Fold this protein.
Amino acid sequence: MMRSRRMVTRLLAGMILAVSMAAIVEAQAAPARIILLRHGEKAGPWQLCALGMERARALSAYYLGRNAQKSLFRPGESPKAILAISMHTLDTIFPVAESWEMPVTFYSAMPEPRGDGFHLSVERLNQRTREAVRDILAKPEWAGQTLVVDWEHDHIAKTKLDRDHLAAARDAAKDRSEPVERITIYDLLHLDRIKGVPYTWPSDTYDYFWIIDFDAQTGQPSAFTMVKQEFGPPFAAVPHNDWGTPEGGSPASRAGCT
């Protein structure tokens, strides 16, 4: 009897240790910082318009590229990885990656034929966003590093998208025990726990960064900063409207943008 109790005690102690070690490993695998942004203005499902391409070059020159004028990287810091999900985000972040002579880690969600043309599949965006966040929180080579993540705005943060998906998933899973999967970076990283994080990304806002810092002990997001993109020559004409307000710029500069 005593031997059985000792065996149970040892088993429980081993389980507790395993859970604790798993938590430590997860915390160690979290990055130190994510610099998150939306793609530039687009011309359709496949490419950026001229204004979006100009913003892509400006982002590299002013904020994210090697030797950027107003670099978001701390002294001596460089991106460990640069992530993208769609052709829009790939085109936006390519000048940045090229300046660092780095590849882009591409969680490809490509336009698919549907109805009257090509459209991004919400289901594919859901899948790729979950995969990317899982890697962000688990890849040991990204632990304690700074990542640049360029994403589709609906899958950065959009409350209605999350709510509709969660409601549909719960309805479909009423008779099953599988957990409901979340689909935006905001929801997957539980950014609602940090004060000041907007719960949606406005459709007309292209010109902000979200900087998310992680606690080194817990591996959880711990601090949040928003930075507005403001460019000088030769990119002074790239619009920089306030969060949630209509984008400025002349009609000529927005020609070809959808």
